[in-house]
Amino acid sequence: MKTMKIAIIGTNGIPSKYGGFETLVENLVIHLSTQYHLTVFCSSKTNPNKIPDYNGCKLIYIPLKANGPQAILYDIISLIISYRSFDKILILGQS
Q: How far is CA 25 from CA 17, 29, 54, 85, in A?
């Protein structure tokens, strides 16, 4: 029974096209989506197909790039959306 809701933010999203954090997120979804309600925040700039879910994980699209100068706003928007809706937030990305 799924009880905990987890948001994953700070990446381009899944399915993985880039490596690194996206591959980590894809593996987390593959192995944990039966135990938790997972939601991954994705960039609609790098994921134009906007599929609604992936391997039992909900995908939410933000209309900004997840890298470069737009990444700060992308992460802030993702955090604002996630703050009250999820039990845990996994923040990935570079500092």
A: 11, 6, 11, 19
For 35, which DSSP code? T
In this structure, are residues 13 and 66 in contact, taking their beta carbons and an 8 Å threshold?
yes
- Write down the pTM of the prediction: 0.92
- Whether 93 and 75 have beta carbons less than 8 Å apart is answered as yes
Distance from C-alpha of 68 to C-alpha of 81, rounded to nearest angstrom: 21
On the CB side of 64, CA atoms within 13 Å amount to: 17
63-to-31, 46, 54, 60 alpha-carbon distances in Å: 28, 9, 19, 10
Q: Cα 52–67–53 angle (5° rounding)?
A: 10
pLDDT tens digits, residue range 4-37?
A: 999 999 999 898 877 788 999 999 999 999 999 9
Give yes or no for a contact between 28 and 8, defined as CB atoms under 8 angstroms apart.
yes
